[in-house]
Design goal:
This protein is mainly beta and 88 residues long. It has one domain. 7% of the residues lie in helices and 48% in strands. The strands form two sheets. The chain has a four-stranded antiparallel β-sheet, with no helix packed on it. Strands 2-1-7 form a three-stranded antiparallel β-sheet, with no helix packed on it. Strand 4 and strand 5 form a beta hairpin. The longest helix has 6 residues.
Length: 88
C-alpha cells in the first residue's frame, strides 16, 4: 500500500516528520511527531521511517539515557497520513 506511486519513489530521500494513524484525521487519529515526548516524558520519538521490505512504518523512540528502541510498527492495513520535512 505505502510502496506504490510517489511515496515509494521519494521515501528514501525524504525525512518523515509526522504520521497520523486512523480513519478520521482531525478527531479520531493518533498523531506521532519526531521529537514528541511520550510515555510520561521518559522517552521521545527519535525516528519515523518507512521500510520497503516489510511495507510498514516504524516508530523508533529514545530514552533519556539515549537508548534507541523500536516502539510501534504500522502496516498497510491502517489508514496513515504522512507529513515530510521540507528543507530549503
Amino acid at each position: 500500500m505505502y510502496g506504490s506511486g510517489w511515496i515509494y519513489l521519494h521515501s528514501n530521500i525524504m525525512d518523515i516528520r509526522k504520521i497520523s494513524v486512523g480513519p478520521d484525521y482531525k478527531s479520531g487519529a493518533m498523531h506521532y511527531i519526531v521529537g514528541q515526548e511520550i510515555l510520561n516524558g521518559s522517552h521521545s520519538i527519535h525516528l519515523i521511517k518507512y521500510y520497503d521490505e516489510s511495507d510498514s512504518i516504524k516508530i523508533w523512540i529514545e530514552s533519556k539515557k539515549q537508548e534507541v528502541m523500536l516502539w510501534k510498527e504500522f502496516t498497510g492495513t491502517m489508514p496513515i497520513s504522512i507529513e515530510y520535512n521540507i528543507n530549503f
